[in-house]
Amino acid sequence: MKHTIYKNTSLSFSDQGEGSAVVLLHGFLENKTMWHYLSPSLTKEHRVIAIDLLGHGKTECMGYIHTMEDMADSVHHILQELQLEKAVFIGHSMGGYVALSFAKLYPEMVEGLVLMNSTAREDSIERKNNRDRAIIAVKRNYQAAIGMSISNLFNEANRTRLATEIEKARKEALLTPLQGIIAAQEGMKIRDDNEILLHTTSFPKMLILGKKDPVLDYEETKTQVENTDVELVTFEDGHMSHFENQNELEKVILYFLKKFSL
């Protein structure tokens, strides 16, 4: 576990392995521990940096709104500290939004991009309203709101089979402070639409979606990669591919990273 200070805020990350760099960015209510199962296979050929984003894991809150650009700048600070010039970015859900913001701000540093259960599009009005409702709910009853949020990310058919994994994810989510939860929701709500980046950037890109994702409409989300060079990978399950489709996800990511092996 490593720490660095950015704008008077302690940032937490891990740095393992050697080779071309891979940056792992977790989703909302997650932290860098979500990658533990995947890291051992990645570190065989790559230098893997897993980061706790602002207000999550062991990284402190920086304010009351954490924009995706704020998060991207904090990631950039860590990479500068590590003297890394380029990396492949893999972002789950909110981590994908951060990776896209990073690609917009620092395009020369992005060697490749994997959006996992994520989208390049901005929030719809309905989604923004849902975030406002979620903020009210978590202020009223923190534990209940988080418990419901986590189980709702899984394909309904998997909720019994993956009860242990859901409980594990819930426990990690409960480590997220209220300020971090609200700041991230506010930041996601006002994020830019970055779909243009899927059409205009030249680095390799992949979009991983679940057909039964309760958060992202599969049919609608996949249209953003039509007529692009983005590789689309579809799993049969929900928003939590790292739990629901663990083995297939590992194979797909290792396949993508073969392009960057030294």
Verbal overview:
- With 262 residues, the chain is α/β, with parallel strands linked by helices.
- It has one domain: Alpha/Beta hydrolase fold, catalytic domain (Rossmann fold, 3-Layer(aba) Sandwich), CATH 3.40.50.1820.
- Strands 1-2-4-3-5-6-7-8 form an eight-stranded mixed beta sheet, sandwiched between helices.
- It is globular and about 45 Å long.
- The chain starts with a strand and ends in a 5-residue tail after the last helix.
- 45% of the residues are buried.
Secondary-structure map with pairings?
Layout (H helix, E strand, L loop, with lengths): L1 E5 L2 E8 L3 E6 L13 H4 L3 E6 L16 H14 L5 E6 L1 H12 L4 E7 L8 H16 L1 H10 L11 H11 L4 H12 L5 H6 L4 E6 L7 H5 L8 E5 L5 H4 L1 H12 L5
Parallel strand pairs: 3-4, 3-5, 5-6, 6-7, 7-8
Antiparallel strand pairs: 1-2, 2-4
GO molecular function, one term: hydrolase activity
Protein name: Alpha/beta fold hydrolase
Organism: Flavobacterium chuncheonense
